[in-house]
Amino acid sequence: NASSSKHSRLRRIILNNVKNQDDAKTKEKPTARTERSLRPITIKQAVNALMEDEDHFLVDGVAVYNVCLVGAIRCISQFDTFATILIEDGTGCIDLKIRNEPALDSKEDVLSVLKADQTHIDNRIGIHIKAIGRLKYACNKLLVAVTHIRLIEDMNEFTFQMLDAIHHHLTLIKKAPVVDKSLTLSSDILSTVKKEIKECSGKDGTHIQVICQNLSSVMDESKIIEAIEELMFEGQVYRVTNELIKTTD
After folding, report:
1. What is the pTM of this model?
2. Could you report the per-residue pLDDT of 77-90, keeping only the tens digit for each?
3. The CATH number of the domain covering residues in 31-175
4. Where would I find the Replication protein A C-terminal domain in this sequence (predicted)?
């Protein structure tokens, strides 16, 4: 009996250790696999993305890492070490920043990727491209730091990309409908966040990060961002620019 009791205690200890290890794993930061995830989005979704921190953004309330966009080239600026390309997909415009280094698929500079030279680079205006990269803020401006880029030679690919972005969007909002999201946020949280936005807003509104910083001692940043999204959905808060928000009253 003593031996049986000893084995039972040992078994409980082992099971508890396994459970603790499993619980710890669920609390870990995003894994390398998560960091390599790729999400197709429209430019409007990129522009409206909420910034969690310097390197992480939320689209549809979900963290995005590598994003895939398509669009028509509207402007190209070539520099010694990098180039910027302004693209437009019908939902908005955004700058792509591309470094002239072997990180690109072609292992050549952007002009070679676009099959152009400096003299005839204007001939590339209007063509469609597909780019993969990370959303970044640089000089208070949102851009995509591109790691892969190529021409789109079949417009069916452009159409498919846009439909794929819509499919991902609808799938995510169906999993977590906005109308249900409000049930997880108390009216006190919404009121507190709205009051802070109103008090901090100048003529041009206030930066989302300022609100997060001011309320950091009261609630988690994720709750603040969730509350801002809910207030936007209800029409109580709106975007002045990509970075600034303001109350409607």
Report:
1. 0.55
2. 888 788 889 999 99
3. 2.40.50.140
4. 185-239
Distance CA 129, CA 157 (A): 10
Q: Taking the domains of the chain in order of start, what are their residue ranges?
A: 31-175, 187-247
Architecture of domain 187-247: Orthogonal Bundle (1.10)
Query: How far is it, in rounded angstroms, from Cα 240 to Cα 205?
Result: 7
Q: By the 8 A CB rule, do 59 and 39 touch?
A: yes
Apex CA 94: angle with CA 89 and CA 95, to 5°? 125
Round to whole Å and give the CA distance between 232 and 235.
5
User: How is the beta sheet containing 50-53 ordered, strand by strand?
Assistant: 50-53, 56-59, 62-64
Report how far residue 155's alpha carbon sits from residue 142's, in angstroms, rounded to the nearest whole number: 27
Rounded Cα distance, 42 and 92, in Å: 8
Q: How confident is the model at residue 145 (pLDDT cuts 50, 70, 90)?
A: very high
Q: What pLDDT, in 10s, does the model give residues 54-84?
A: 778 888 888 888 899 999 999 988 887 888 8
Going by C-alpha positions, the residue among 149, 128, 136, 129 that lies closest to residue 64 is 136
The encoded tokens of residue 30 equal 């995003």
Question: At residue 231, what are phi and psi to the nearest 5 degrees?
Answer: -65, -35
Nearest to 30 by CA among 1, 63, 2, 4: 63
To the nearest 10°, report the CA torsion of 98, 54, 57, 86. Answer: -30
The single residue listed with the structure tokens 């977590």 is 176
126 forms beta bridges with: none
Handedness of CA 119, 123, 126, 130 (dihedral sign): negative
